Amino acid sequence: MSTVLALRRDPVRLLLSRGLWAGAWYLLAYQVAGWVLFAIALSVTLTGAVLCVTLAGIPLLIGAAAVIRWCADVERARLLPFCGDLGSHYREQAASGLLSQVRSRWRDPAIWRDIAYLVGMLVPLVTLDLIVLTVWLTLLAGITLPAWYWAPWQTVHGVRFHGYQLGYFPNGPHGHPAYGFYVDTLPKALLAAAAFAVAFLLFNYVLVATARAHVAVARNLLAAPEDPLRAAREVLGRPGPLSVAESSAHPGFAEDSYRTSGR
User: Which of 12, 49, 129, 179 could make a disulfide contact with 27, Cβ separation 3.0–4.6 Å?
Assistant: First the structure.
């Protein structure tokens, strides 16, 4: 994970950071891009699956794999500011026959990870993002309350009351029952805006954490899977302390061994 979505300790610095607004735009754009890519990936996958029993379904399956890969590449492009270039991790298509290409493409685990993200993860991700964005935008709009608190109104027993309700006031600001805070004067609007500002600064951490979680899910499914033994292989591939000591004691030993092995 890059430092773009860093959770800064100072809420004011977080507000002014690039990560907050980049994360908000990423989550907001997913509300549209996610559904579009979901519709494309699901339609081509179902069409190829239904027609795979016919000869016409064979080239459709090849085309469907290419379309799914394109959809995944769109999401990888959106991840560039956060993860960098995830690279290409698909198997090389060396087969020339149509059936061989179908087997090669649809046996590639990368295609199924793409489908898992584009189709399987859409509902939980888009729901989480929508809830967080709704609260975040509501708090942001609440900061501007002094500019428009007077515009909303309700009529109770023929009397019109102007003001914004933060709660439940079925009988107007002075009636009963009444629950919450009725903003009908400028001082009340300024007080409510200050409370919204504090809540907004704190909720920015929730938004950035949500963006980080979304990016982590996308990266884990759309990037090449990490080798769990990579660190161990790197350690084994390095020269050990015995070989270093041996080379120091016998400077020509390593060179003679190399020449001997090359003969």
Answer: 129
